[in-house]
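Problem: given the chain below (148 residues), write out its structure.
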Amino acid sequence: MIEPDSVECPCGCELMHRIGKDRNERLDIAPAQCRVIVTVRPKYACRTCTDGITQAPTPPWLIEGGLPTEGAIAHVPVSKYGDHLPLYRQSQILARSGIDIHRSTLADRVGVAAFHLRPVVDRLAEHFETSTKLFMPSRQIALQSPAG
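Solution.
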């Protein structure tokens, strides 16, 4: 439940009254546990005037309006690369918990994680390139499409 900072009417007449709420659900994954995180944001309005509605803003999400949380997105590449668990198997494991997520959706989540980790990887590469005690290939290697 996220309440606005103040429910006092901007005109100063009285406190606003709750007239509704927005409810958001997001999927979160904890090791060996899947859960749905529910965020409730009540709406408040004044009964005396029509100066608008007050509601707390939605906290920032990694995928705006998306279902998975940051933990759910991070879980996929960690399982894929850290635990050597292919996406089709991850899909089967989630299905046993009653969550139907196709492996193409999991592949999209790997891409989202890679996109958000790119600045970290670039900064590490800059640091490694200045090191005198580490060998790594040059960053000048260009990725090419399979066609050439």
